[in-house]
Specification:
about 300 residues, mainly beta, 7-stranded antiparallel β-sheet, 5-stranded antiparallel β-sheet, 20 strands, about 5% helix, about 40% strand, globular
């Protein structure tokens, strides 16, 4: 029997539509996007428009291109490896409407466009006009747990992007902001304080999504169908019901127990790629996996998630 470690997370990964399904991204399908790879950022273009920023590193170019499957998409061509989220080129959009204080899910389709390289991307909801010394940088990732020695980013999600179009998900807590775009361990080493602060209405009134390459030379990628809506983890409208979900592994079979009739169950890998999705027909569901690794099992009906490490 393979060794199993299970951790409860605040992150859910099932693709569902919240009861509050207002869309906060304008032109998520990129139909009106016209980013020129040679263009530079105007000083804060108007809200609801896709735009690019070269960054001081100039390690990539970004432009709107035609994809045979998706139509118009935004693609980033990456020249050199860099993981300086502050200074690298990125593209994004200022959010038009002001969301309420709650948890929100960003979803998007992405694909690697260089078959020789698996790209990594960094996704952030930044506060407008933030700089290192302003101490209010970005909205907090739901999954982030602060520790002064943590090597995880509190406001930026790093994702590996596979070949072919896949859907990815990130949950952000718009009730909290982080004071740094760096890891807490980096700030500690450099005698900087790291804080998680209460978000204000001013923070939510003008913020922007940024998407950029992260530390992979040649890690070209394309993005489409971007959405930002209230998450199923909504603190205002939580999903209730069902018993306490639990799991065990027998060989390559993951047994999910403690379910109720018609609980929505899904399994993804750690990068958020969907591997299994169905409604339960009883108190348990069996899921077979082909390989060892890290898997996320989410019960959307209960609003609970398990992280399963099969060794």
């Amino acid at each position: 029997m393979k060794k199993l470690s299970i951790f409860f997370l605040l992150l859910a990964v099932c693709p569902t539509i919240s009861a509050q399904n207002k869309e906060f991204i304008t032109d998520g399908g990129m139909a009106q996007s016209n980013i020129d790879p040679l263009s530079k950022l105007a000083l804060w273009p108007k809200k609801g428009v896709w735009f690019s920023y070269w960054g001081s590193n100039k390690s990539a170019t970004i432009g709107t291109v035609e994809d045979s499957d998706q139509g118009k998409v935004i693609q980033e061509y990456v020249f050199t490896a860099s993981k300086q989220v502050d200074y690298d080129p990125w593209f994004g959009q200022r959010i038009v409407d002001v969301p309420a204080a709650d948890i929100y899910r960003l979803s998007f389709k992405a694909k690697a466009t260089n078959r020789c390289v698996t790209p990594k991307i960094a996704v952030t909801l930044r506060l407008k006009g933030t700089y290192v010394w302003k101490k209010r940088q970005a909205f907090k990732l739901v999954e982030f747990v602060y520790s002064p020695t943590s090597n995880e980013l509190g406001g930026t999600k790093i994702l590996e992007i596979a070949e072919g179009w896949n859907t990815y998900y990130v949950d952000f807590d718009l009730t909290k902001v982080v004071s740094s775009l760096s890891e807490p361990s980096w700030d500690l080493k450099n005698n900087r304080e790291y804080h998680i602060l209460e978000a204000t209405n001013d923070d939510r009134s003008d913020f922007y999504l940024t998407i950029q390459s992260y530390n992979v030379a040649g890690g070209d990628f394309a993005i489409d169908d971007v959405s930002l809506q209230v998450s199923p983890l909504s603190a205002v409208n939580p999903v209730n019901g069902g018993e306490q979900m639990r799991a065990q592994v027998v060989g390559r079979k993951i047994m999910i127990n403690g379910l109720s009739q018609d609980d929505a169950i899904c399994l993804t890998d750690e990068a958020g790629r969907m591997m299994f999705q169905q409604k339960s027909k009883g108190k348990e569901v069996a899921i077979y996996v082909k390989t060892s690794g890290v898997f996320i099992v989410s019960n959307q009906t209960q609003g609970k998630t398990l992280k399963i490490v099969v060794k």
